[in-house]
Amino acid sequence: MLEVGPTLSEKCFEESEFEQVYNQIELTAKENEIQILDQPYYHVMVDYFGGSVFEIYAQLELSDGDDSE
Question: Which residues contact 10 (CB under 8 A, 6 or more apart)?
Fold first, then answer.
């Protein structure tokens, strides 16, 4: 099992939405003054009845005093 944390994540239903999701993750990080570690982002595809959903995770770089995970 791979454990990655802390992260920001978003979900989408189409691979064509990846770029939009990356931009949303980056905007959220910027607005909250959070640094994202170097790409690549982590992608997880989850199958469900009727289709698939993609979960995209960006690993965060926290300052030494930040213990939120």
Answer: 21, 24, 25, 55, 56
Where are the strands (E) in 3-65, listed by range? 7-12, 35-36, 42-48, 51-61
Task: Give pLDDT tens digits for 25-50.
Answer: 999 999 999 999 987 899 999 998 88
- Counting every residue, how long is the chain? 69
Residue 16 scores a pLDDT above 60:
yes
Whole-prediction pTM = 0.78
Question: How many angstroms separate the CA atoms of 65 and 31, rounded?
Answer: 19
Q: How many CB atoms lie within 10 A of CB 51?
A: 9
